[in-house]
């Protein structure tokens, strides 16, 4: 069983998907701690309801971003995670904490990276006239939304879509994408090899894709 720590700043719907999959026996892992930069984050309440340790620190209590990150990750290290999942964590991470955990930290982002990094991705996709949108899970590096992409889920952009409707459709695929990717990491199928994503030891030329059956296809 793999130990997972989750970082989240918001309501924690992806966290809940992990909790539910573990409880149902569909994911052989354990969430050992949930960490946030916002004391009022819904993710913390979800963690407490599931009996999971929930920790929040206030960035304003620290002199700098590196100091905050050092304090936060010292607490994360305390639960001894094998994998760190950023699921709606809205702060940039300092280079030193990222590099120290290379290949052990992933992030889920609501776009088909490298397109539409940063915030407001659904509106970005609409403004660009994209016909396809989706979500990506990638290894975390110091570059914003720039680490090697492990897997993606795709959804069509439909006539009449606005950002809210598009976001809802993407979110419905985010959850199975995250579960499938975490499962592949837990099983040892996927790992970071010499800076590239490897699937069963074979470096990928393109990200894995989430199929209609919620399995990752290479």
TrEMBL record:
<feature type="binding site">
    <location>
        <position position="65"/>
    </location>
    <ligand>
        <name>(6R)-10-formyltetrahydrofolate</name>
    </ligand>
</feature>
<dbReference type="InterPro" id="IPR036477">
    <property type="entry name" value="Formyl_transf_N_sf"/>
</dbReference>
<dbReference type="InterPro" id="IPR004607">
    <property type="entry name" value="GART"/>
</dbReference>
<feature type="binding site">
    <location>
        <position position="107"/>
    </location>
    <ligand>
        <name>(6R)-10-formyltetrahydrofolate</name>
    </ligand>
</feature>
<feature type="active site" description="Proton donor">
    <location>
        <position position="109"/>
    </location>
</feature>
<comment type="function">
    <text>Catalyzes the transfer of a formyl group from 10-formyltetrahydrofolate to 5-phospho-ribosyl-glycinamide (GAR), producing 5-phospho-ribosyl-N-formylglycinamide (FGAR) and tetrahydrofolate.</text>
</comment>
<dbReference type="GO" id="GO:0005829">
    <property type="term" value="C:cytosol"/>
</dbReference>
<protein>
    <recommendedName>
        <fullName>Phosphoribosylglycinamide formyltransferase</fullName>
        <ecNumber>2.1.2.2</ecNumber>
    </recommendedName>
</protein>
<keyword id="KW-0808">Transferase</keyword>
<feature type="binding site">
    <location>
        <begin position="12"/>
        <end position="14"/>
    </location>
    <ligand>
        <name>N(1)-(5-phospho-beta-D-ribosyl)glycinamide</name>
    </ligand>
</feature>
<feature type="binding site">
    <location>
        <begin position="90"/>
        <end position="93"/>
    </location>
    <ligand>
        <name>(6R)-10-formyltetrahydrofolate</name>
    </ligand>
</feature>
<dbReference type="InterPro" id="IPR002376">
    <property type="entry name" value="Formyl_transf_N"/>
</dbReference>
<comment type="similarity">
    <text>Belongs to the GART family.</text>
</comment>
<keyword id="KW-0658">Purine biosynthesis</keyword>
<comment type="pathway">
    <text>Purine metabolism; IMP biosynthesis via de novo pathway; N(2)-formyl-N(1)-(5-phospho-D-ribosyl)glycinamide from N(1)-(5-phospho-D-ribosyl)glycinamide (10-formyl THF route): step 1/1.</text>
</comment>
<dbReference type="GO" id="GO:0006189">
    <property type="term" value="P:'de novo' IMP biosynthetic process"/>
</dbReference>
<feature type="site" description="Raises pKa of active site His">
    <location>
        <position position="145"/>
    </location>
</feature>
<dbReference type="GO" id="GO:0004644">
    <property type="term" value="F:phosphoribosylglycinamide formyltransferase activity"/>
</dbReference>
<feature type="domain" description="Formyl transferase N-terminal">
    <location>
        <begin position="3"/>
        <end position="181"/>
    </location>
</feature>
<dbReference type="Pfam" id="PF00551">
    <property type="entry name" value="Formyl_trans_N"/>
</dbReference>
<dbReference type="InterPro" id="IPR001555">
    <property type="entry name" value="GART_AS"/>
</dbReference>
